[in-house]
Amino acid sequence: MTTPDRTRQGEKALLVQPHPLGPQDPSLAEEFAELARSAGAVVVATITARIERASPSTYIGSGKVEEVLAACDALDADVVLINHTLSPGQERNLAKALGRRVVDRTGLILDIFAQRAVSHEGKLQVELAQLKHLAARLIQGSAARLDSQRGGSIGLRGPGETHLEPDRRLLQERKDQLEARLDK
């Protein structure tokens, strides 16, 4: 399965390496760069971000978001990879602020597994994990896109499904199918 988070071959990736106060461990940044290269990304730069207290909206602070945006523009980066697990809201807010896809560490690792899964069972397990990761990131589109209205047919009046509900239902159906196949 290909997810929106999937890093395509040759994409230019800007890496963001968060670290707590104190000395940095350079091996963590190198490990993350190797993960990015394993996923097929071309690493154009790594930016470190000292995190005293994580921003609830973007994980990194607003000044660092501006620095990452400037670097992305200067280096023509296609995707930003963050070496930390982000909440769906943080990932969404960063993507909006940077105008690029943002993939956290979990999404990157799932992508690598998807590329390398060989057995049928392995492929199903990876797809299931990707669907669970994606399901948490589904949101209402711009300003909670308007509800779909069905025609004025009797019994079908009132607010229709939001655009999100069919997506959620399809994801759940696929997850159920995969789990049933894995049980077999």
Write the layout of secondary structure elements.
Blueprint: E1 12-19, H1 26-38, E2 42-50, H2 62-75, E3 79-82, H3 88-98, E4 101-104, H4 105-116, H5 120-135, H6 164-183
Parallel strand pairs: 1-2, 1-3, 3-4
Structural features:
alpha/beta; four-stranded parallel sheet; 4 strands; globular
Descriptive overview:
There is one protein chain. The longest helix is centred in the last third of the chain and has 20 residues, at 164-183. Residues 1-7 and 140-161 have low confidence and may be disordered. The radius of gyration is 19 Å and the shape is globular. A four-stranded parallel β-sheet has the order 2-1-3-4, sandwiched between helices. With 184 residues, the protein is of the alpha/beta class. It has helices at residues 26-38, 62-75, 88-98, 105-116, 120-135, 164-183, and strands at residues 12-19, 42-50, 79-82, 101-104. It has six helices and four strands, in the order E-H-E-H-E-H-E-H-H-H.
Give the uncertain stretches in residue-range form: 1-7, 140-161
What's the overall average pLDDT, rounded?
81
Number of contiguous helices: 6
Distance between the termini: 20 Å
Helix coverage percent: 40-55%
**Assembly state:** single chain
Strand content: 5-15%
Computed CA radius of gyration, to the nearest angstrom = 19 Å
The count of DSSP E runs of length 2 or more, i.e. the number of strands, is 4
Structural class: alpha/beta
Order of strands, widest sheet: 2-1-3-4
Biggest sheet statistics: 4 strands, parallel
The gist of it:
The chain is built from six helices and four strands. Strand 1, helix 1 and strand 2 form a beta-alpha-beta unit.
